[in-house]
Amino acid sequence: MFSGLVTGNAHIANIKKDEHTITMVIKTVPANLKDLKIGDSIAVNGCCLTVESFTETTFTVTMMPQTFKKTIFKDSKIGDQVNMERSLQLKSRLEGHIVTGHIDDVIFLVKKQQNENAVELFFKLPKRLISQVVAQGSIAINGTSLTVMDIHDDIFSVGLIPHTQEETNLAKLNVGDQVNVETDILGKYVAKNLVNFQGAQ
């Protein structure tokens, strides 16, 4: 379980792609890996992955077929900046929102605009996720907890304050780039219950 408060101080140091799996070595600063253990969960661009081995500044993870198909990692390369987050501890403040690390889909950036010192990003949603996204609700983009500014049909927007621009890889996105998206877990349950309720009528 994660909060969506990520650090962008990490990048892909090595990546090996097979037909259905990807093994990555992620490099970051030692402070991000303090007390790390084999088997720990770390979210990389919002995807919950298991640490298989580590050094003072790197950790290695492997993605299985389902993760391979549903994330942007199949197109990733050495040197790419990634957002990372260690899993929550029970004593931690939940300052973002509840993020599971289970990616729903890959979506595209369709528009990017500067609003004074903030950057507004517009993304296109697949039809099956539209009911799970609401204005002023939460969403995780590449693992980053963000507030949905607005949504019209299948296009929603989020804003990046200067801190988020500096601490994540989102400000570097260009129109057409793909990102991992996870909708709010609360929205999933609401949408599911509405479907069940309507089906029972």
UniProtKB/TrEMBL annotation:
PROSITE patterns: LUMAZINE_BIND. The keyword Transferase applies. It catalyses: 2 6,7-dimethyl-8-(1-D-ribityl)lumazine + H(+) = 5-amino-6-(D-ribitylamino)uracil + riboflavin. Keywords: Repeat, Riboflavin biosynthesis, Transferase. Coiled coil: none annotated. One of its GO terms (molecular function) is riboflavin synthase activity. This is Riboflavin synthase. It comes from Lactobacillus jensenii.
